């Protein structure tokens, strides 16, 4: 893979960039200067369009789709065309992340694995390089597919223990870039409340809940936005030092890159007018990781 993601990146819901509006180029340029290696974009209809705007506004940082949901973006050929356009304009800075995200009811009759394999066939036929894509793989079968037909895996909502297992399946070569949720708050109860505000969305989805059960969590852990045990396992909370130690746990377990999804009361507020990028938290993390400047 020719794209350099660095050791740490930022995973950002697409809607938070969209809400930047005319401020997006200025904000993206600031994030670029902070030193993070990549911006990962959550799925949405305009994911490639927003990715292009981020690439145009920055000079160094990579942009990765985390993920293009193959159920809501069913045309692999269309995705490949847009990828080629952006990758040509911004060489070695765009990583195509693909995954089996939430589906419509009628799509549950289809095998996620078989659909992903067919999607990859379509991308290959369109000329999209396998080395410039990763899969949102968590289970052993999908991880093996990621190792065979992409640059690696981008697991979501996992733990260092899962990362160690994923590395064993992938082998030494492929990229392993797990997402990690972060709450910079000293009060455990308040931090967990902020985390649950975001986790409720994911715990209601069959794909995420299935993987968490595979990781040993129970139905009780998955209710009410997650038990304390689950929240503490999948969310790094505390001060900056606590978060850095959790990032190191993922790296020690075999991760090449960790994509931080920073959560605040505002990032997942039910009031859209309050939703905003956690820039203050990005700045605090960047100071600890990079001294506040380029990596």
TrEMBL record:
Residue stretches making up the Luciferase-like domain: 22-107
> Matching PANTHER family, A to Z?
CONSERVED PROTEIN, LUCIFERASE-LIKE MONOOXYGENASE
Q: What is this protein called?
A: LLM class F420-dependent oxidoreductase
Q: Which species is listed as the source?
A: Dactylosporangium darangshiense
């Amino acid at each position: 893979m020719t794209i350099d993601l660095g050791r740490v990146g930022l995973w950002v819901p697409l809607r938070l960039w969209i809400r930047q509006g005319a401020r997006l180029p200025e904000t993206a340029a600031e994030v670029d200067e902070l030193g993070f290696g990549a911006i990962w974009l959550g799925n949405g209809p305009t994911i490639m369009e927003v990715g292009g705007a981020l690439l145009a506004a920055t000079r160094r940082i990579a942009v990765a789709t985390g993920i293009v949901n193959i159920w809501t973006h069913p045309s692999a050929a269309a995705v490949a065309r847009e990828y080629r356009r952006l990758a040509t304009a911004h060489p070695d800075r765009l990583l195509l992340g693909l995954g089996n995200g939430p589906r419509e009811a009628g799509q549950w009759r289809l095998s996620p694995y078989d659909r992903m394999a067919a999607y990859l066939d379509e991308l290959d036929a369109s000329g999209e390089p396998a080395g410039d894509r990763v899969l949102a793989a968590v289970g052993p079968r999908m991880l093996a597919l990621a190792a065979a037909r992409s640059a690696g895996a981008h697991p979501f909502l996992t733990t260092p223990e899962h990362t160690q297992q994923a590395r064993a399946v992938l082998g030494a070569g492929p990229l392993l870039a797990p997402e990690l949720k972060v709450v910079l708050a000293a009060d455990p109860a308040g931090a967990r409340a902020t985390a649950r505000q975001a986790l409720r969305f994911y715990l209601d989805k069959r794909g995420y809940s299935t993987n968490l059960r595979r990781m040993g969590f129970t139905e009780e852990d998955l209710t009410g936005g997650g038990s304390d045990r689950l929240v503490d396992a999948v969310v790094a909370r505390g001060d900056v030092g606590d978060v850095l130690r959790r990032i190191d746990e993922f790296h020690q377990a075999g991760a090449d890159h960790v994509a931080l999804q920073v959560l605040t009361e505002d990032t997942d507020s039910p009031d859209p007018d309050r939703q905003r990028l956690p820039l203050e938290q990005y700045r605090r993390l960047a100071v600890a990781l990079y001294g506040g400047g380029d990596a």
